[in-house]
Design a protein that fits this description.
elongated, 2 domains, eight-stranded antiparallel β-barrel, mainly beta, disordered N terminus, 6 helices, OB fold (Dihydrolipoamide Acetyltransferase, E2P)
């Protein structure tokens, strides 16, 4: 039945209440944002950056950004207690994670043994997400089902930078942040420091197989300067570096060994005065971060070693300097290619 008559009119208060009700219904129909993911608890920094990352994310990116703190509960699927690092497999629902822990030698000092974990047991872990598409993380804490925490000091042990966190790729020495220093002992009175203005270096890092990585650096011998300027001419001359005949100082690695969680031993050939001799340098990872100017990953490295100058026929007046030379290389290496 149809009713004819004048159009219905609502009081102003009724119109206001109806509009508010419609607005609430519309808001209730909107999907709620969901930043949480099952089994993953990002740290506060990750939460703060979530909004900025959402607009740039793609389906190929990992669920949690590299460096974020994650917490997982699952079953042990593998336990490899070994050098140069311990690997733990963890099944978390339908995801398989690989957890990297310090070398067995370090874990033994924390009370771990090769039988600390067994396949199939349920554990809870806290770790830091590593770069790359795979589910890999650096272990910080592991708690068994009975509440026992294994290696309470792991967090302190892994607080320093680890080569396990360094993304695989080619790294070039930043020309603005680098130093190569050779140090001589002047009869015990003082150290003579020799630096080089022109220096290049490259690190090819393979995180999956560190032993296959390589490191090289080269300096222009003629660019040397010392903290005793009166010696510069002598250091450039025939008895020392003979820069006119041998213009370069170069190191090329032949083997890399993971010594500790954040250190390497780098074996290689050092060339000076046209002579090549084997030397071993110890490398320490100082920091992994972002280069704000280049918008790429950067790693701070320090290398040092020492050797006999006589092995390169470097002579000096009797008693003028000690028979050994110490080498120090420090710099920021920027990721140039994956």
């Amino acid at each position: 039945m149809l009713f004819a008559g004048p159009p219905m009119r609502f009081a102003p208060a009724c119109r206001l209440h109806c509009s508010a009700a419609l607005l609430l219904l519309w808001l209730a129909a909107l999907p709620l944002p969901s930043h949480a993911q099952p089994g993953l608890v990002p740290d506060t920094d990750a939460q703060a950056g979530a909004a900025a990352e959402t607009s740039n994310s793609t389906s190929d990116e990992p669920a949690v950004r590299a460096g974020a703190i994650i917490e997982l509960r699952g079953q042990i699927s593998a336990f490899e207690f070994s050098q140069p690092q311990t690997r733990i497999g963890l099944r978390n629902g339908d995801q398989q994670w690989q957890l990297l822990a310090p070398p067995a030698a370090e874990l033994r000092r924390l009370g771990w043994t090769s039988k600390s974990l067994f396949v199939g047991e349920t554990v809870e872990i806290r770790a830091r997400r590593l770069a790359g598409p795979e589910n890999r993380a650096q272990l910080g804490r592991l708690t068994r089902a009975n509440g026992q925490t294994l290696g309470a000091s792991i967090a302190a042990s892994t607080a320093r930078p680890s080569f396990a966190m360094l993304p695989t790729g080619n790294y070039a020495l930043d020309p603005s942040y680098r130093s190569l220093r050779l140090q001589l002992d002047q009869m015990g009175f003082m150290a003579i420091d020799i630096t080089f203005a022109r220096l290049t270096a490259e690190l090819k890092w393979n995180g999956a197989d560190p032993q296959s990585s390589s490191l090289r650096f080269q300096a222009a011998a003629a660019s040397l300067r010392s903290n005793v300027s009166a010696l510069d001419a002598s250091l450039s001359g025939a008895s020392f570096f003979a820069v006119d005949r041998h213009p370069r100082i170069r190191f090329v690695s032949t083997a890399i060994r993971v010594l500790q969680w954040g250190e390497l031993l780098v074996d290689g050939q050092l060339e000076m005065r046209g002579i090549r001799r084997p030397v071993t340098l110890r490398a320490r990872l100082n920091k992994i971060g972002q280069n704000p100017r280049r918008q790429t990953t950067a790693a701070g490295l320090s290398l040092h070693g020492n050797f006999r100058r006589s092995d390169w026929n470097i002579n000096a007046p009797a008693g003028a300097v000690d028979g050994r030379i110490a080498l120090f290389l420090d710099g920021q290496f920027n990721l140039t290619a994956l």
